[in-house]
Each structure stands twice: as C-alpha cells, then as structure tokens.
C-alpha cells in the first residue's frame, strides 16, 4: 500500500492526552536540577520560589495557549498557530529551530539521562566506558563514543520504531509509563514524608529561608558569594533554566491535533490538567527533598547528609533522598523510576514532534518526502528524520550545553506564540473560539512579561549568554534558509 494512502486516526482521548502531557513533562529533570538551583540561589525559600514561579509561568502559558489550540486543532500544533497568527516565515523559524535543537535536543538529552541511570543497574553503561576514540581532530579535541551514547541511540531508534507502527502503539506505552511514574512520584512523596523526615535537615533548611548565596559548582574552587537584589534576580533567572526545562513539553499534545477525539475541548483540558498535576508534584517533591536532606553541603563530604542537596552525587538529589529513606536499595529503586520516567518522556516527545515536520512539509517548507503518512496513518518518514538528527546530537556529546540552547529558543517562541493571541483577536475578531484564554488579557500579558525577562537574563548572564546568543543566531540563520528554499511557497495557501 503506498504511504500516501494512510490517514490520521482520531484515537487520542482526554485520558490519553493528559498522559502524553504529564509523561512528556516528567523526564529526568525533577530528579536532578534542584541541586543546581540550590547552588544558584542558596536557600530553601528561594529554591521553592524558583519552582513556584516556574509553575505559575507554565500554567499561565498553558491556559493562554489553549485558545490557539482550540482555534486550530491541526497536526503541527505550534507551527500552525504561528503560521495563522503571523506568516509562514515565522512559522518556519519555529519549525527550523524545533528540528535542529528544541525537540531533537530534548530527545537526545533525555536519552542520555536514561542511559546514565541504566548505569546504576548495569555499570557497563558509563561515560567512562569508551567504545571508540579517534586521535586529535581539532586541536586537542578527539571524538569519543561511549556505551552511554550507544544506549541512548538504541533507545531513540527503538521508540521511533514503535511509534512508526501507529499512534495506538505509542499512546498505549505512554499511558502505561505515565500512569506508573505518576504513582511512583506520589509514593516518593508519601514515603519521604512518612519515613524520610530529618530533624537536623529541617532545622538547617528552615531556620533561615531567605539569605541568598551563590555556591560554586562541583569541581570549582571558589567561595560562596552573597547575592544582592539584582544578583538574586539574575540567579533566579539562571536557576529557572533547569526548572523550566523540567516543566516543558506541555505543548507537545498540540502537534497531534488531528489525532485527538474532540480536539477543541480535549487539547485545552489536557494541557491545563496535565500542567497542574505536574506542577503540584514538582513542588511537593522539592518539599520532600528539604525535609530529608540539608540544602547546604560540601562537595568533599563522604556521607549523603554531608553532601546535602547542593552536592548530591552527580546532582542526583532524588537518588540521595531514596538512599536516605531506603538505604542502598534506594539507589536501585530510584534508577528504575528514572529509567521509566525518561523512557516515557521520550516516547511522548518523539510521538509528537514529527507531526510538526509533517505540517511544514505539507506547506512546502521542509523536505517534501516528510509530507507522507504510512499505512498506519503516522508520518513515519518525519519520525525517522527526527530520529537521525537526535542520534547525531547524542554523538556530538554536547547534550549538556543543549539545555541553554533549548530553553532560550523554547521560551522565545512561547512568547511569540502567546502574543499571537492578541494578534488574532485583532485580525480575526469573529473567528470561532471554542475556548477563550482564561484571564485575558492580564494572564497572557503576565506570561509574556515574565518569560521575556527570563530570556533577557539568559542573554546577559555570564554563564548562559554564550549559548543563548548562539541559540538566537540559530533562529536567525533560518531566515536566509527560508528565502533560499521556501520563498516560492510563501504565498501559497496551506496544504
């Protein structure tokens, strides 16, 4: 049967959609990034503020973004919203960045996280286990291929193959894994509250909530630096790179608009319900961290409590808490949980992203061969193109640096998309709107302002400026690419 004969199947229900939202959001970040956040802001109160502020921004974005999702419940999601609110150039710049770094960068980073935590169970999977190494290529740089990269690539290829068989196969895996990790997170919270309460940690963490101090990263020799008000604002912005990364991908369900049952209502509800559930869980998990371990620690300490949240081994705060509660078996339990979590996150992200490239190709703005569905009604070629590029990013070894590229670009396009609500209210005032942004215009404006401040901080802060500016240049590079390869399609109606 020719690939063109396939068609999208409306198989995603509200429950499926909520599982895709929560499953895509909960990856490895919540188990790791609180260590870096605690070093950036240096107090329990500001740690919780970072997560609360992240939750407010994420929820504000989701309930505002829902207006566009209900207006245009099409395959392609945010790409389609930008095309309708602005033009094909703006939409292309988003799709270009989505393919080069946003979606594929997250897939690569989550895949590597899966492989690293597999190493807790099977030590052969380690970044130190180099399977292949070249001689110096550029200066002192030599390419290395480790067992961690191998497993990350195998994971991405395997999940892609499953999703190429049809949306029902992908959603079944997503439902099982998302339900499992939601229950597991709830058990972590309850177990931590019941068994992990540490009187010394509580005293250390809550006797002074608001003294902001920046602590050095592991391996950096420097004294803690008290933060001024302006320094604290910058530190919060930098710290939110990790928390926003952990809370991202809530929009991915929009990419599958034509595969959703009753999409005008389901898209909005799933994003609101999913982000609310994840935000609540994230805040509660961080409270458990603070009740179990002292925030301030020493990188040279030999005990879990001595290293604290700040210097948990390899930043694995959740693993440290699990070991505190359950002993050595806790590390194994947490490794299994994070493996399930990262597998489920990558399944949801891989399932969703390929739909955007399909929509771009249908508009004539991407490789034409990607504008095809296979017999199972999924864009298999787009899935495999996404797979190939994500695997190359795994090989690059730059997945750690990708975080700043990813988050600057992600938030930048969220801001542009939310502004699109105001544009469409003016240009298409009579267009059907099954859902109108809650709190309009105040809540969307709050989102735009807070998210814009975050982007500005990333552009000017010393630790993030280089990668954020490169991310901006990457977006800008899409302009000549568009006019070189897509200009002849720019005035054509969408396919």
From TrEMBL:
UniProt cross-references to Pfam families, sorted A to Z: AA_permease_2 (PF13520)
Keywords of the record: Membrane, Transmembrane, Transmembrane helix
Protein's membrane topology: Multi-pass membrane protein
Subcellular location: Membrane
Superkingdom of this protein's organism: Bacteria
Main location class: membrane
Entry protein name: Amino acid permease
Lineage: Bacteria, Pseudomonadati, Bacteroidota, Cytophagia, Cytophagales
């Amino acid at each position: 049967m020719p690939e063109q004969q396939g068609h999208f199947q409306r198989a995603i229900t509200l429950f499926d959609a909520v599982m895709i939202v929560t499953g895509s959001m909960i990856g490895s970040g919540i188990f790791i990034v609180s260590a870096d956040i605690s070093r950036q802001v240096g107090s329990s109160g500001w740690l919780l503020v970072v997560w609360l502020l992240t939750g407010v921004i994420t929820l504000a974005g989701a309930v505002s973004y829902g207006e566009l999702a209900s207006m245009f419940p099409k395959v392609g999601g945010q790409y389609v919203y930008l095309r309708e609110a602005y033009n094909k150039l703006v939409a292309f710049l988003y799709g270009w960045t989505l393919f080069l770094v946003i979606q594929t960068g997250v897939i690569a980073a989550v895949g590597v996280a899966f492989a690293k935590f597999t190493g807790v169970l099977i030590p052969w999977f380690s970044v130190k286990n180099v399977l292949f190494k070249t001689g110096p290529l550029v200066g002192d740089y030599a390419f290395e291929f480790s067992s961690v990269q191998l497993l990350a690539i195998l994971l991405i290829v395997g999940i892609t193959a499953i999703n190429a068989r049809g949306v029902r196969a992908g959603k079944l895996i997503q439902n099982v894994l998302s339900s499992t990790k939601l229950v597991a997170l709830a058990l972590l919270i309850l177990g931590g509250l019941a068994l992990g309460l540490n009187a010394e940690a509580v005293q250390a963490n809550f006797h002074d909530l608001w003294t902001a101090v920046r602590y050095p990263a592991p391996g950096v020799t420097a004294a803690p630096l008290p933060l001024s008000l302006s320094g604290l604002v910058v530190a919060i912005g930098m710290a939110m790179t990790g928390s926003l990364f952990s809370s991202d991908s809530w929009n991915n369900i929009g990419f599958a608009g034509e595969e959703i049952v009753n999409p005008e209502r389901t898209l909005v509800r799933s994003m609101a319900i999913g982000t609310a559930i994840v935000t609540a869980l994230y805040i509660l998990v961080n409270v458990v961290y603070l009740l179990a371990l002292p925030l301030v620690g020493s990188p040279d300490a030999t005990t879990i409590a001595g290293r604290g949240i700040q210097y948990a081994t390899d930043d694995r705060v959740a693993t440290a808490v699990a070991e505190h509660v359950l002993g050595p078996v806790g590390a194994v339990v947490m490794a299994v949980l994070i493996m399930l979590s990262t597998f489920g996150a990558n399944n949801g992200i891989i399932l969703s992203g390929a739909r955007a490239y399909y929509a771009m190709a249908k508009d004539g703005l991407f490789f034409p061969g990607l504008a095809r569905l296979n017999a199972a009604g999924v864009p298999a070629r787009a899935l495999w193109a996404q797979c190939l590029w994500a695997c190359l990013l795994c090989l690059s070894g730059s997945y750690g640096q990708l975080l700043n590229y990813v988050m600057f670009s992600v938030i930048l396009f969220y801001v542009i998309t939310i502004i699109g609500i105001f544009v469409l209210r003016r240009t298409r005032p009579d267009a059907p709107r099954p859902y109108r942004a809650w709190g309009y215009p105040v809540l969307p404006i709050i989102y735009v302002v807070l998210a814009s401040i975050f982007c500005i901080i990333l552009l000017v802060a010393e630790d993030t400026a280089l990668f954020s500016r490169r991310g901006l240049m990457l977006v800008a590079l899409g302009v000549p690419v568009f006019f070189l390869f897509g200009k002849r399609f720019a005035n054509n109606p969408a396919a």
